[in-house]
Here is the input.
Amino acid sequence: MINDFEYLAPKTLKEALALLDKYQDDCKVICGGQSLLVLMRQGLVAPPYMVDIKGLNELSYIKDEKDGLKIGATTTHRTIEKSAVIKKKYPVLAKMETRLASIQTRNWGTIGGNVCHADPAGDPAPVCIALGATFTMTSSKGKRSMPAEDFSLDYFETVLEPGELLTEISLPPVPAKTGTAYTKFNVIESDLATVGVAVTVTLGAGDSCQDIRIALGASAPIPLRTKKAEAVLKGKKITEALLAQAGEAAAAEADPISDIYASDDYRRELIKVLVPRITREAMANARKAK
Ligand SMILES: Cc1cc2nc3c(=O)[nH]c(=O)nc-3n(C[C@H](O)[C@H](O)[C@H](O)COP(=O)(O)OP(=O)(O)OC[C@H]3O[C@@H](n4cnc5c(N)ncnc54)[C@H](O)[C@@H]3O)c2cc1C
Here is the structure.
């Protein structure tokens, strides 16, 4: 049963921000509703006011600019999956989307709604972290931006303040000799990750690891950038022994839960296997890149 609420459908971003400012904690933003309605049906969220931002076309865009790619928060998963520029410049993002939920959910759910829902098992956040994304939030008082890895605070909790909307996800240009890869291990096809791993590697002289970003999904209360695993590999010529060490470091830094899909120990074992595997894949992609 969903409690009664007043439905508000602003036509512009300015109008939406004014409503959020007015109702603060009494209102909840809804976009595609693919995650929020589940919580409302369970009675876990019962806002007196709902501000629907799905119709804000000014937040639905993919722009390829000199300083990187900008994705508006209300852009659907399916639009990202199908985007020619994303397939060309950030193929890992389009590929990740093909494994997120069903086509029906991807047609309506949005990337902004996904990361704001802040389920640590979500697919987009680890990929955004590995790609070095920046998230921009807007309120009636102005804008602020931060690295994707700082956006989630805890299970289903983000840095968003009352009155604030996530408005844009921006991805920096991909440096030369850089490759990214992502996979999730899941029990049911198109379901959330049991563990997800995203890695970006930039290769330097002699095939050494000049730079690396490793992010884990479903492995901690937040999508986790594992800097200890990165430190094992950064600046070195990557060997199988170092990859195994990086997997061990990532598993030690993780703080996974036990649930019906997997125990915490099983998730750690998955991390030990997937971090080396996805790093190898990212390196292979980097070798193919210009
Ligand atoms: C059957 C099913 C399978 C799924 N499988 C997967 C999967 O495999 N992988 C995966 O990652 N996800 C999965 N999901 C989750 C879902 O696809 C996403 O979380 C969804 O895309 C959220 O987007 P939305 O626009 O529907 O958000 P909503 O449900 O409308 O909102 C989600 C939350 O974000 C807030 N919010 C939304 N937009 C903004 C904004 N711009 N600024 C501030 N707050 C905002 C809302 O207030 C709410 O708290 C699945 C969902 C379903 C129903």
User: Anything to note?
Assistant: The chain has three domains: 6-52, 60-171, 178-288. The longest strand covers residues 195-203. Residues 264-288 form the longest helix (25 residues).
